[in-house]
């Protein structure tokens, strides 16, 4: 605090005579060349001030998260793993591998992944498990599922207070057949247990209601079509309800396709993992197992499909070729028996060999064409090439036949018979070998995919992760609370550190920093229950920190009083709700307690309530004397405390500002000032009305009351400017309601009896 010889008044504030020589800079603390600094202590103080807000938001979000973690349905996950084996392109070749190369189907891992998700596989699994029929107990919304989990395996008494049909235990219903008209798909119906294996079917927005027996199949005609249902089992007490829904088959397939998570493990490893999540562990295990089995079955069937088709064709042709061979042998034997052995000349022999070779090639081409037609059409380039080769062979046969005709008839007959035997024998032998190879392929064919990890029914859910949810909720609550705290701080813009005022005004102008008093809060809460009297903290809690701060201000004011033009001091503030009346009343009590005679005047003719601190009425007060209705002596309430007198507002007049301009107000102050050591004035706020400017002209010192976190820098600058314009030089600032902060100076002094050193009670 300042001493009489080193007294500082507000920067840019005029002295008597009041001349505003330098205008007030709205942001004087921003000097050219100043580098902005990060106010770490200010950030922590903001968090400390908003600790209850941050804690409340965190507690609320955490409570919601805990509630969600308790009532959320568990989510299970099952998986299977498939290995796709790529066959080596450098594998050794043999007759079997060459024959089977036509039927080889190589698929990369990416193709297998798409096949696993295809409708060809998923639809079979959906149909086998009838996943388009959805049946579940009717639980109480939000928390009903949690109660059912706690009582799983036990039948409950249906309903909430006997209504609604809600179930709370392990109720279950199995439905194997449920078909509805297309217009009724995806609608929710209700099965209500009637007892004695009876049930009632209703709902779906329809008037259809019928009763049935468990185990029997029903067909019920409706205007839209036929409803067919069969309930296999119903494990529930009478009155329990179940929700039943017939889903669209295509919609169910598409939903499962989207739910399947298929990915290759590693880069080009050929190992595929299939994951599926759901709320029913048994359901997802059954579905994934069925998908795996169906995929493996179809993959293996595809590998042997072409070989089996070719083998079926050969099995039909081999008996025919065998009969043709036998008939050729019989005709040749008959010819030899009839004519004896015939020696062919070299030319005839060569012609026969050429003809036999050509016919063999022709039959081979026919065989290849037949096999290719099982996979391709006549227009395919490969089939067209076979046709061209066959035409060339036919031309060659025609030429050989023409040459043979020149031989003797007997040689021609022998050549023809021999040729038929050779051709039929070669063809039958080739086709027999091919058929045998295809049989080996069909029997020994192994799929290039294998299931290395089959699905296993999950035992524990993967969601919700309750500890993680709660931890994230706490972090989110702290983040949101901190964000809201800093946002509120930025919007309000209130000063929370008295040093900011001194840096702004570049002078040591804060005469007192009055801390927040928790004792005052307690006294106010108690006073509200007892009546209209306000508690005077300096009288009821004289050791409070706020009262000690006022005592410090009393000491500073004592050294400054000789420099004032009179002993009249005014406390004013920029706006309402700054604690100005609290400061005025308690400071008057503190000064009076030091033995000084003090007069406290409530000059707030708009909303003054100082009389409530002393339990007196406002009617006999200041306004009565200004109007001349009462003399000064009759409006002073003597000894409201020892050495403290008080003048209330009196009846509140309609024209307050003009009322205070009356000469009687100045005369009143001149009359009472010599009789007291200190006269305190408590006017209305400075910025909303002009009363304080009128009253301040009579005061020897004017102090501006600012409240921590409420008063802004702009309000202080505007207050100083208005006082300067009215010719008033404010003396300093009282920083009120300052919260306990990090690094704040001061602290509560603990009173007690000191112990005596070396003294022992006898």
From TrEMBL:
Q: Which domain of life is it from?
A: Bacteria
Name the top EC class: transferase
Q: Which CDD domains match?
A: BY-kinase
Coiled coil segments of this chain:
297-338
Can you give the residue ranges of the Polysaccharide chain length determinant N-terminal domain?
37-129
Among the Pfam families in the record, one is GNVR
All copies of domain Tyrosine-protein kinase G-rich, residue ranges: 411-490
EC number(s) reported in the record: 2.7.10.2
Q: Where are the transmembrane segments?
A: 52-71, 468-486
| Gene Ontology molecular-function annotations | non-membrane spanning protein tyrosine kinase activity
Supply the alphabetized keyword list: ATP-binding, Cell inner membrane, Cell membrane, Coiled coil, Kinase, Membrane, Nucleotide-binding, Transferase, Transmembrane, Transmembrane helix, Tyrosine-protein kinase
Q: Which PANTHER family match?
A: TYROSINE-PROTEIN KINASE, TYROSINE-PROTEIN KINASE ETK-RELATED
Q: Output the NCBIfam families linked to this UniProt entry.
A: eps_fam (TIGR01007), eps_transp_fam (TIGR01005)
Under what name is this protein listed? Polysaccharide biosynthesis tyrosine autokinase
| Organism name | Massilia agilis
């Amino acid at each position: 605090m300042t001493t009489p010889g080193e007294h500082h008044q507000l920067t840019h504030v005029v002295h008597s005579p009041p001349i505003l020589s330098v205008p007030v800079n709205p942001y004087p603390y921003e000097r050219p060349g100043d580098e902005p600094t990060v106010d770490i202590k200010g950030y922590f103080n903001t968090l400390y001030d908003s600790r209850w807000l941050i804690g409340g938001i965190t507690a609320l979000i955490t409570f919601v998260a805990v509630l969600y973690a308790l009532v959320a349905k568990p989510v299970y996950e099952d998986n299977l793993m498939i290995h796709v084996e790529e066959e080596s392109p450098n594998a050794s070749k043999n007759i079997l591998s060459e024959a089977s190369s036509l039927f080889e189907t190589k698929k990369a891992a990416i193709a297998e992944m798409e096949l696993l998700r295809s409708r060809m596989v998923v639809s079979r699994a959906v149909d086998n498990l009838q996943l388009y029929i959805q049946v579940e107990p009717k639980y109480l919304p939000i928390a009903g599922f949690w109660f059912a989990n706690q009582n799983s395996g036990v039948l409950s008494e249906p309903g909430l207070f006997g209504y609604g049909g809600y179930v709370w235990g392990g109720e279950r219903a199995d439905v194997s057949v449920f078909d509805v008209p297309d217009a009724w798909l995806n609608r929710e119906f209700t099965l209500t247990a009637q007892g004695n294996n009876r049930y009632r079917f209703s709902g779906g927005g329809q008037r259809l209601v019928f009763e049935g027996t468990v185990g029997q199949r029903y067909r019920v005609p409706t205007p839209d079509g036929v409803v067919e249902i069969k309930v296999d089992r119903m494990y529930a007490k009478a009155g329990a309800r179940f929700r039943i829904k017939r889903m669209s088959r295509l919609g169910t397939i598409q939903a499962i396709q989207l739910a399947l998570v298929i990915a290759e493990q590693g880069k080009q490893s050929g190992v595929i993992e299939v994951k599926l999540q759901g709320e029913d562990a048994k359901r997802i295990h059954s579905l994934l197992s069925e998908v795996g089995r169906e995929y493996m079955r179809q993959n293996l069937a595809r590998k042997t499909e072409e070989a089996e088709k070719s083998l079926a064709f050969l099995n039909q042709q081999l008996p025919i070729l065998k009969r043709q061979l036998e008939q050729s042998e019989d005709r040749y034997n008959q010819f030899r028996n009839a004519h004896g052995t015939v020696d062919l000349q070299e030319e005839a022999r060569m012609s026969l060999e050429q003809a036999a070779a050509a016919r063999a090639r022709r039959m081979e081409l026919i065989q290849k064409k037949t096999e290719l037609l099982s996979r391709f059409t006549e227009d395919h380039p490969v089939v067209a090439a076979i046709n061209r080769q066959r035409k060339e062979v036919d031309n060659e046969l025609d030429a050989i036949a023409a040459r043979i005709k020149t031989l003797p008839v007997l040689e021609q007959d022998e050549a023809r018979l021999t040729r038929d035997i050779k051709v039929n024998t070669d063809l039958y032998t080739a086709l027999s070998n091919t058929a045998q190879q295809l049989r080996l392929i069909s029997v020994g064919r192994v799929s290039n995919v294998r299931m290395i990890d089959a699905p296993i029914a999950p035992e524990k859910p993967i969601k919700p992760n309750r500890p993680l949810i709660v931890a994230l909720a706490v972090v989110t609550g702290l983040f949101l609370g901190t964000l809201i705290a800093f946002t509120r701080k930025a919007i309000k813009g209130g000063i929370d550190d008295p040093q900011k005022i001194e840096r702004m005004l570049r002078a040591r102008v804060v005469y007192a920093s009055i801390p927040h008093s928790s004792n005052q809060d307690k006294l106010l809460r108690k006073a509200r229950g007892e009546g209209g009297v306000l508690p005077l903290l300096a009288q009821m809690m004289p050791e409070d920190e706020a009262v000690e701060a006022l005592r410090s201000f009393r000491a500073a004011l004592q050294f400054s009083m000789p420099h004032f033009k009179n002993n009249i001091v005014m406390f004013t503030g920029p706006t309402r709700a700054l604690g100005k009346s609290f400061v005025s009343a308690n400071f008057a009590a503190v000064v009076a307690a030091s033995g000084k005679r003090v007069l406290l005047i409530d000059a707030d003719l708009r909303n003054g309530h100082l009389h409530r601190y002393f339990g007196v009425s406002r009617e006999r007060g200041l306004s009565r004397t200004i109007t001349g209705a009462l003399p000064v002596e009759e409006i002073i309430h003597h000894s409201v405390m020892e050495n403290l007198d008080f003048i209330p507002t009196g009846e509140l007049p309609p024209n307050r500002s003009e009322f205070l301009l009356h000469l009687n107000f100045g005369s009143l102050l001149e009359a009472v000032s010599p009789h007291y050591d200190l006269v305190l004035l408590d006017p209305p706020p400075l910025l909303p009305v002009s009363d304080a400017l009128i009253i301040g002209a009579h005061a020897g010192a004017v102090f501006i009351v600012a409240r921590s976190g409420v008063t802004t820098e702009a309000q202080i600058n505007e207050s100083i400017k208005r006082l300067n314009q009215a010719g008033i030089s404010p003396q300093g600032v009282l920083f009120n309601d300052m919260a306990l902060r990090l690094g704040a100076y001061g602290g509560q002094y603990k009173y007690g009896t000191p112990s005596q050193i070396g003294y022992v009670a006898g």
